[in-house]
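Q: My labmate handed me this sequence with no annotations at all. I'd like to see what the chain might look like in three dimensions before we decide whether it's worth expressing. Could you predict it?
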Amino acid sequence: MAGMPEELYLLGNVVIMLAYAAIMVAIVVPVARAGQLRTNKLAVATALIFFSCAVGHGLHALTAARGLATGAGHPASWTAALWDVLTAGVGVYYWTLRRGYGVLLDKGAMYVDPWRQHRLDAAGARERAARASAENHRATLAAVVEHTADAIIGADPDGTITAWNSGAERLFGYTAAEAIGRHALIVTDGESTDEQARLMDRIRAGERSLSYEAQRVHKDGSPLEVAFTVAPIQDGAGTVIGISVVARDIAAAKEAAERQRAMQERTHQAQRMESLGKLAGGVAHDFNNLLAIIVNYTDFAMQGGKVDATVQADLAHVRTAADRAINLTRQLLTFTRGDAIQPQDVDVNTAVAEVQTMLERTIGEHITLITVPSAQPLTVRADPGQLQQVLLNLALNARDAMPDGGTLVIEANTADLTGDELAVQPQPAPGHYARLLVSDTGEGMSPEVAAHVFEPFYTTKPRGQGTGLGLATVYGILAEAGGSINLYTEAGVGTTFRVYLPLVTSAGPAPGRPARAATPPHGGGRTVLVVEDEPALARVVTRILGNAGYRVVACANGEEALAVDAQRACDILLTDVIMPGMSGRRLAECLHERRPGLPVLYMSGYSNGLLGTTHVLDGDIAFLEKPFTADQLLVKLGEAAVASQVDRAAVAG
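A: Here is what I predict for the chain of 653 residues:
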């Protein structure tokens, strides 16, 4: 039992020696194969530690073995003690290197596998390539943002502008230097300021994205229709550190959409009229066969000579009813272009005079009838009877719309059509036309009624008082003659029908090529105050004038126009005549009290003759009749400005 601890001591040192030796070999062999014995100091030092430990424990094992062999204990020798001191020194050196290198892996590791190093190098190359690609992507994105047609704006959470691309410069008129550092409210008017503040509050409160349409203001004061997409800019913690805004001018898109809708509606109207025409034509032809039988057998009975007076009177009533039925079918055939016509050259002024003579005897004393013939002869190719029928039907409808009295005006003049007029049907070919206007101060029509007035059998009159064929017949006559018709009406105000018929003239322009109007003058930066209560038309006028070099400020009514003019005086007033609240004439009077020489151009869907006879306007004012073309608007506006300058010069002289 006495030798048992020595045996255990021997066994333990042998095992530890072998373990340390194995660890040393596991370090040295791969490092030597990799050729890193001289360069990898940390690996060599670690191997030396395990080598010295293995030798030390081997010496302890040898001493223990000798003691067991002699049977007497053998104290530790100086050699073992010194070796242990050496081992401690190597350990201190190792830990010095260990702290200097920091880790035993990656850079400065005790062993680096060449294949793993290759993969690390490849990963580093990929990371550098990814960073370069990201930089290129950011540069490309910055270029796209700067040069895109949309306005892209950045702002801090308080609304101060921090980014302003070239699209924003084009849309709002401010340069980046002018906009950055200022509040986003620079592009709003007074009414939209609160709205924009509420939207920014919603973004700051956490909403991820907002899309909406709103009106904004250009640097020159003209209104803009803009679509916005607003989104928050967040940091890694989700805190809103900014706001991004994408803005797009949608005025042209809205105008195109409205024009497309109007064209589709006109196409549907033409298709509906064609279908109704086929139906009406079939009914008229079949009904005419029955009427021929009724009329002839009635005549036979009346001519028999053996019928007493009572029966003769009854047959006369049948014959009268049959004649009315024949007249109705003739109107149906006219509507469907199935009736026989005899076109010839007709003087329009003569037709107007003949209709005036007939109406003066029948229209009633409660109606004031005014005719305004053309200053020059107008010749059209049409059936004379049908042309009179057109004027009579329109005049009688106007009379029925004024049961309590009013004014009926029939005018004749000329017009140039481009073929793009949306409110004229059937669609006219470009050319020079004679124009007949039939205007009344009657009850007017609602938009729903106006959309169906040319359809056969459509009537708003009480049962038994209207067939619904009058305006359908007018439509058919004009379509057969190559003409067109336009309706302008307002409930409670009145109605104007415009009839267009191709002119027959050798002196005028060739068919299909209307005469060119005078070249419109350039706006020269003058400010036009446009007052129009129809938003779609106001946008069209704004665009026309803006493209011609004018600065435009648009208002929806007279009160708003007076307030705007008080802040920024305009150079020219372009106003509708009849508007809710304040009329165009009253607005002009108020502005003339401030600036007596201010040029004014009136516009209206009613004819100048009608407005003059009802004392809405004086006869010598500058007037533009709706619908008008861009050239007509610009020429009239230029003429109004020139006339005002001449008047001021005459007063000064």
